[in-house]
């Protein structure tokens, strides 16, 4: 899984930290048709969605 860390101010974190206030965004795929939601983040042409432990676990269980 590829992911991004983002602080509450919206800055991406690219260094090691133990800050508990960071949000995790997991990769969804490439942004092909510019359709993404308000919670999604576009970074270097790749679409990321805010990590939600409950929905990710549910998605994994359904596979």
Describe this structure in words.
With 63 residues, the chain is α+β, with helices and mostly antiparallel strands. It has one domain. Helices cover 16% and strands 37% of the residues. The chain has one helix and five strands. A five-stranded antiparallel β-sheet has the order 2-1-3-5-4, with no helix packed on it. A hairpin with a 2-residue loop joins strand 4 and strand 5. It is elongated. The two termini are 15 Å apart. The C terminus is likely disordered.
Features of this protein?
five-stranded antiparallel beta sheet, 1 helix, 37% strand, single chain, alpha+beta, elongated, 63 residues
Tell me the layout of helices and strands.
Elements: E1 3-6, E2 12-13, E3 23-30, E4 40-43, E5 46-50, H1 53-62
Antiparallel strand pairs: 1-2, 1-3, 3-5, 4-5
């Amino acid at each position: 899984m590829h992911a991004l860390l983002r602080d509450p101010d919206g800055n991406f974190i690219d260094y090691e930290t133990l800050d508990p206030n960071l949000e995790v965004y997991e990769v969804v795929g490439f942004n092909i048709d510019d359709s993404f939601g308000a919670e999604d983040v576009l970074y270097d042409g790749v679409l990321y969605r805010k990590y939600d432990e409950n929905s990710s676990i549910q998605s994994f269980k359904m596979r």
